[in-house]
Amino acid sequence: MQKSKKPMKKGKKIVIKKKSKPSKKPVKKNINKAQKKSKVVVDTKKLLSLEDAVKYISDFVGEKGLEIFEYLVKHGATEENKLASKLGFDRTNNIRKFLYLMYSRALVSYVRSKRGRKAWYTYTWHANPDQLIFLLKQMYQNDIDQIKKSIELDKVEDYYICNYCNRLYDVATALQNDFKCVNCGRVLEHVDTKEVLQSRQQRIDELKKRIAYLDSLIKTRSSAKAK
Ligand SMILES: [Zn+2]
User: Do 63 and 69 contact (CB within 8 A), yes or no?
Assistant: First the structure.
């Protein structure tokens, strides 16, 4: 679990640290890449106008989850109760499953605090748009890796196609079916492998462009040390 580095500013809230040692100076921890996030600025407007970004979140947590994420991006850290009432949840409990799910991929984080010794804990949530960028880039990179693998196969494989159904067959399958389409029975035609390779390469180039665009949405503040 990530811990917030700075305590909350407002009110007399006490930030509860887990088993923190009594120490006068703030403990400096090794800051890993994920924790560096406080030092990066993300162009969230551009990020959330990307179809893939919106799709990623809504596929993962649904429309309601997307609404929560967008609210947190727009309004910054928000107390759980307030978040629930702002977004029309009748009970705070009902919003938690969305938050916890997003938390499982570090798309949101929270700070736990309480006002007095006997008070309940309050959870204040914030969004991590840079994590969304990281996850999207990972998704694109996986696609690229997959395509690269199939390119290696294409170099040795011959393909046949049904021009009617647009269905592609490798040699073994085409042979098995007497070079006829299993769907419509039409005779298959040999495919120019170069064309297949070309279209796969185009797809890779497109994905690389998307990765580069995502990178352009992150600005590292001068205080952050370069890697
Ligand atoms: Zn066919």
Answer: no
Confirm whether 190 is domain-assigned: yes
Q: Do 216 and 223 form a contact (C-beta atoms < 8 A)? A: no
Rounded Cα gap, residues 159 and 177, in angstroms: 13
Which of 119-123, 154-158, 163-167 shows the lowest per-residue confidence on average (mean pLDDT)? 154-158
Q: At 110, which CATH number?
A: 1.10.10.10
The answer to whether residue 45 scores a pLDDT higher than 90 is: yes
**Parent domain of 184:** 135-220
For ligand 1, the distance from its centroid to the CA atom of residue 180, given in whole angstroms, is 8
pLDDT tops 70 at residue 132? yes
**Residue 200, domain member (yes or no):** yes
Centre of ligand 1 from the C-alpha of residue 187, in Å: 8
Per-residue model confidence (pLDDT) at position 26:
42
* Predicted confidence (pLDDT) at residue 22 exceeds the cutoff of 50: no
Q: Which of 198, 189, 203 is nearest to 158 (CA)?
A: 189
Two structure tokens written together for 16:
């509860």
Q: How far is the CA of 179 from the centre of ligand 1 (A)?
A: 11
Q: What is the whole-number distance in angstroms between the Cα of residue 194 and the centre of ligand 1?
A: 22
Task: Out of 102, 127, 152, pick the residue that ends a domain.
Answer: 127
